[in-house]
Design brief:
This protein has helices at residues 45-57, 79-85, 88-91, 105-125, 137-155, 171-178, 196-202, 225-233, 255-258, 267-270, 328-364, 386-390, 395-404, 432-451, 453-457, 470-475, and strands spanning 129-131, 161-165, 182-186, 207-213, 238-243, 262-265, 285-287, 299-302, 308-311, 369-370, 380-383, 411-412, 421-424. The chain starts with 44 loop residues before the first helix and ends in an 11-residue tail after the last helix. The protein is built from 16 helices and 13 strands. The strands form three sheets. The protein has a seven-stranded mixed sheet with strand order 1-7-6-5-4-2-3, with helices on both faces. The protein folds into three domains: 1-58, no CATH class; 79-340, Type I PLP-dependent aspartate aminotransferase-like (Major domain) (Aspartate Aminotransferase, domain 2, 3-Layer(aba) Sandwich), CATH 3.40.640; 349-468, Aspartate Aminotransferase, domain 1 (Alpha-Beta Complex). α2 runs antiparallel to α11 (328-364). Helices cover 37% and strands 11% of the residues. By secondary structure, the chain is α/β, with parallel strands linked by helices.
């Protein structure tokens, strides 16, 4: 595809701007004036429309193709949630509008949404209260660890350590470190879950808490989860639930019933709100009753007269962790999604997510190396076989080849405890036909890896850029010649 500058024809114009009443001569200092006119592309309106339409067709997203990005749950967002979020009564609200008097009825609906979403999430997770303020999952993590720190400070506990599994998302140790804790990694056993004996050896009076994703990033559910929570509670520690993978158990099990004290939820993962492009996000944090007093200011309360208001009198709160009340539009989408599906619908979400992941796992087992045997939950992890490695093939080659097949690659090289890992999450929204097409593509790539490895290493060949050096691009970023016009 040509750049828009390459399509330029001198003298060609898209629009004719009529002279207005704006002054034509403005007193600008000479040093700020251009020596010559800017070199802008010159095209007709039709040229411009076709250029940007062609560019849009090169975009890849959930609405266009399968996006099996393990651990990040890139799934389809129902359009009804987008429609309702665009209603003027919601979309045009300003956070400084009054809550009650002087036009406050304009905000009562929004406050009701926040309050009722809190109640719904309590029921889903087994927590006793939520804050909607965190703007992302990682922000929710930090909020949760700050609440844990506030709990220990209030009790006079001089605890220094947060335990984190070696298979955890990278934001877990980062959040704990930002909150001032020392992070200690807990190794996994040969079954892919936290090693219980290693955990017992690391627990002492310095442990403030444990961060745990359940199911973990290998898609495996830890059968000792209740015992783990009890061990941490025995030293007056708190257990933090990373809700990234709640969509694997939603409607089937509740973190609060396992013994977790704090939970954050990624609304884009479990409850189908937009994800990608750096935002917007929402990472509500829920806590058990003893921790309610540490939640961020403010929370929505329902008054005796049936109206809703924001509660600011929270003496032991960790304070504000975001402007106003969080990303309301994202919370609203999740609220609509939960109401639309209901209890039985949420149960089907987890059932279908687990079914789809296990279907892929069984179909690809003869062609790739499965990281861990047994039933997985919402995602499965493979790596390349020894035969592929002997041919010089790496996981990245498989990922690049999938692009030529019309699929977004799965997460690669994570979790790091599996060498050459590929983490595949089909989500509950994809049809069997789409999943079968993906499986067939993966099989064809596996066969090509052995029959013609050099051809595989050349992929992708259908994209404007084929084999960029991602490491150099990240470490030596150069945007000086970047043009958003393509």
């Amino acid at each position: 595809m040509q750049l828009i500058f390459e399509k330029s024809v001198p003298g060609r114009k898209a629009v004719q701007i009529n002279a207005g009443d704006a002054p034509t001569k403005i007193n600008i200092k000479k040093q700020f004036l251009r020596a010559e006119d800017p070199d802008l592309p010159e095209l007709s309106e039709l040229d411009v429309v076709r250029h940007f339409t062609e560019l849009s067709r090169k975009n890849f997203g959930v609405d266009t193709n399968f996006y099996p990005l393990g651990s990040c749950t890139m799934k389809y967002n129902p359009k009804v949630t987008e429609l309702i979020a665009s209603y003027p009564g919601f979309a045009h609200l300003h956070p400084l509008l009054p809550q009650l008097r002087m036009g406050g009825m304009l905000t009562q609906g929004a406050l009701q949404v926040l309050h009722e979403t809190d109640l719904l999430l309590q029921e889903i997770t087994g927590m006793d209260g939520f804050t909607m303020q965190p703007m992302a999952g990682s922000h929710g993590e930090l909020t949760g660890i700050m609440i844990i720190a506030a709990y220990h400070a209030d009790k006079g506990n001089e605890k220094t350590t947060i335990l984190v599994p070696d298979s955890a998302h990278g934001t877990n140790p980062a959040s704990a470190a930002i909150a001032g804790y020392k992070v200690v990694s807990v190794p996994s056993n040969d079954k892919g879950v936290m090693d219980m004996e290693a955990l017992k050896g690391l627990i002492n009076e310095d442990v403030a808490g444990l961060m745990l994703t359940c199911p973990n990033t290998l898609g495996l559910f830890n059968p000792h989860i209740k015992d783990i929570c009890d061990l941490i509670h025995d030293v007056d520690g708190l257990v933090y639930y990373d809700g990234a993978n709640l969509n694997a158990i939603v409607g089937k099990a509740r973190p609060g019933d396992f013994g977790f004290d704090v939970v954050h939820l990624n609304l884009h993962k479990t409850f189908a709100t937009p994800h990608g492009g750096g935002g917007p996000g929402a990472g509500p944090v829920g806590v058990t009753r003893p921790l309610l007093k540490y939640l961020p200011v403010s929370i929505v309360v329902k008054r005796k007269d049936g109206t809703y208001a924001l509660e600011y009198e929270m003496k032991k709160s960790i304070g504000y962790i975001a402007p106003f009340y969080g990303n309301f539009g994202i919370v609203l989408r999740a609220y609509v999604y939960i109401l639309m599906l209901g209890k039985e619908g949420l149960i089907r979400v987890s059932e279908n997510a687990v079914l789809n992941a296990n279907y892929i796992k069984e179909k690809l087992k003869p062609y790739y190396k499965l990281a861990f045997e047994g039933i997985c939950k919402h995602e499965c992890v493979f790596s390349i076989t020894k035969e592929m490695a002997d041919k010089g093939i790496h996981t990245m080659d498989v990922a690049k080849a999938l692009i030529d097949k019309g699929f977004h690659p799965p997460t690669v090289y994570f979790p790091t405890i599996v060498k050459e890992s590929m983490m595949i999450e089909p989500t509950e929204t994809e049809s069997k036909e789409t999943i079968d097409s993906f499986i067939q593509a993966m099989i064809e790539i596996a066969e090509l890896a052995l029959s013609d490895p050099e051809k595989l290493k050349a992929a992708p060949v259908t994209t404007p850029v084929t084999r960029p050096d991602e490491t150099s691009a990240a470490r030596n970023l150069n945007v000086s010649n970047f043009c958003p016009c393509g």
